[in-house]
UniProtKB/TrEMBL annotation:
PANTHER family: ENDO-BETA-1,4-GLUCANASE A (PTHR34142), GLYCOSIDE HYDROLASE FAMILY 5 DOMAIN-CONTAINING PROTEIN (PTHR34142:SF1)
Glycoside hydrolase family domain boundaries: 42-287
Record bears the keyword Ligase: no
Designated name of the protein: Glycoside hydrolase family 5 domain-containing protein
Length: 326
């Protein structure tokens, strides 16, 4: 009898494993939450989402904000998360053209939901404390539209440039209640001072009273100033129990250009893997700089060949297509 049962059990295990591999990232992981200082999925496991950030909506990458690119990233690059980076200022950004900028974002978000991947709605602002009312209104609209949708994550302040943690925290404590009025449980990403590097400072005085709050940490892998000392800041924050998400990192230097040092980049990638951190790489654009993943003139609706990809694009595509835990 057992000889007949074992092959059936084995076949069921293989079938379930195959079925799980065919599920979308959101179908596999479900609703994200923060638990014991970690971002986890519906099974309480750290999923390590991996993907790519679109460039600013008001810069060269704007033309790639369309469902075709999202679909290509999901199916060819095998991303589990993307980041929609809405430029707030200078001219042409959300402050001047809110309807245009918001539509670029929602087109990408809607496509991500359809493709079953996670998406960061990024208020891509270096001075968000100066645009409090606009930020509140934007996230009110976004949360009313996407409340309860498990794909959507809200990033409320990209890279505070000069604001200290007190200012960033006070801003967050104004915006978070707006989101929570409509969406009680969505993950919210809070910025940290010094271009999202000083997470160790945030870790000593974290936001309390709200669930599912994570903190953004950014680095540029080849930058000489973004090496062991910067990892030490993040390691300290992790040790103190601060949940981190790498909402932006690049293979080049902090200005988006400069050297692409493979050895330094591989050290950072290993650190990401060792710490089970979710990330979005910067960025989808054909601008002539090191961190751009596309060569000039790459098709605007996806369908890119290897010839359309820069060295950064080839590296990131290969990394994303490698097997991952979830």
């Amino acid at each position: 009898m057992m000889r007949g049962v074992l092959p059936i059990l084995f076949a069921l295990i293989v079938f379930k494993a195959s079925k799980a591999q065919n599920l979308t990232p959101v179908a596999r992981n479900g609703v994200l939450k923060v638990q014991n200082g970690k971002l986890v999925n519906g099974q309480g496991i750290e999923p390590q989402l991996r993907g790519i950030s679109f460039s600013w909506t008001l810069w060269q990458g704007q033309k790639y904000y369309n469902p075709g690119v999202v679909n290509w990233l999901a199916n060819d690059f095998k991303v589990s998360i993307i980041r929609a980076s809405m430029g707030v200022e200078p001219n042409g950004g959300y402050l001047q053209q809110p309807d245009k900028q918001q539509k670029l974002i929602t087109d990408v978000v809607d496509a991500a939901i359809k493709d079953g991947i996670y998406v960061l709605i990024d208020w891509h602002d270096h001075h968000a404390e100066n645009h409090m009312n606009e930020s509140k209104d934007f996230f009110k609209q976004m949360t009313k539209k996407y409340a309860g949708v498990p794909n959507v994550i809200y990033e409320i302040y990209n890279e505070p440039a000069k604001a200290n943690w007190k200012t960033v925290k006070e801003y967050a404590l104004q915006v978070i209640p707006v989101i929570r009025k409509y969406d009680k449980n969505a993950v919210i990403v809070v910025g940290s001072p010094h271009w999202d590097q000083d997470v160790d400072i945030a870790a000593t005085d974290p936001i309390i009273g709200y669930n599912n709050i994570v903190y953004s940490f950014h680095f540029y892998a080849s930058d000489p100033n973004h090496q062991e000392a910067l990892r030490a800041k993040a390691n300290k924050a992790i040790k103190l129990g601060l949940p981190l998400m790498i909402t932006e990192w690049g293979v080049g230097e902090s200005n988006g250009d400069g050297e692409f040092n493979l050895s330094k980049t591989q050290t950072w990638v290993k650190w990401l893997i060792d710490n089970h951190l979710s990330w979005a790489n910067w960025n989808i654009t054909d601008k002539h700089e090191t961190t751009a993943i596309l060569q000039a003139g790459a098709p605007i609706y996806g369908g890119w060949t290897e010839a359309n990809l820069t060295p950064a694009g080839l590296f990131i595509r290969e990394l994303l297509r490698q097997p991952k835990p979830l």
